[in-house]
Amino acid sequence: MKFLVISDIHDNLVNLKKCLQWGRNRGITEAICCGDVVNGETLAYLAQNLQTIYLVRGNLEIYDEAEVKPYKNIKYLGRFGVFELDGKAVGLCHEPWYIKYVLQQKPCGIIFYGHTHEPWMKTEDGITMTNPGTLGGVFTKATFAVWDSQSGELELEILELI
To answer: Which residues, 6 or more positions from 5, have their beta carbon under 8 angstroms from its beta carbon?
Structure first.
């Protein structure tokens, strides 16, 4: 199954809509979000336009955690967590310094994180750590990633080039 991997939206609905439309055009209706959605309106847009979204809380969120509960398609992990997809443990956090806590919960083959706004992929000790960058386009170009949970294929995308 393919997932859009997004982070640091910072309420940029224009970029979010463009990214989700690009995904829909390719049959991608699932997402992993590494935090900094920011407000409840953006959170609602995600919930209304994706079948499933795995989400962690970023450092700049202003939505109340209670706003997440009505959305059954949001799999909310708090500040960090691990979930299973296609028999693989997937780690998720916002700030990279939470990676060590993710790994204390369970060994993972892949960990997604955000916060730095810099798109990045690195494999170390058999763990692929990926930052999809900032979908909001804050400080750098707007970027996101596409991950195939079955094949493991991972690609970084620049929003203005799609």
So the answer is: 31, 32, 33, 34, 112, 130, 132, 144, 145, 146, 147
CATH superfamily of domain region 2-161? Metallo-dependent phosphatases (3.60.21.10)
Structure token digits, residue 97: 């310094």
- The pLDDT value recorded for residue 27 is 98
50-to-55, 89, 99, 118, 155 alpha-carbon distances in Å: 12, 21, 26, 24, 20
Q: What percent of the chain has pLDDT over 90?
A: 99
Q: How many CB atoms lie within 10 A of CB 54?
A: 21
pTM of the predicted structure, to 2 decimals? 0.97
Residue pLDDT, tens place only, 97-145:
999 999 999 999 999 999 999 999 999 999 999 999 999 999 999 999 9
Q: How far apart are CA 86 and CA 1, in angstroms?
A: 8
Q: Which pairing describes strands 110-112 and 88-93: parallel, antiparallel, or unpaired?
A: parallel
Q: State how far the alpha carbon of 154 is from the alpha carbons of 4, 14, 30, 128, in Å.
A: 10, 24, 15, 10
**Residue extents of the structural domains in the chain:** 2-161
Residue 33's pLDDT is 98
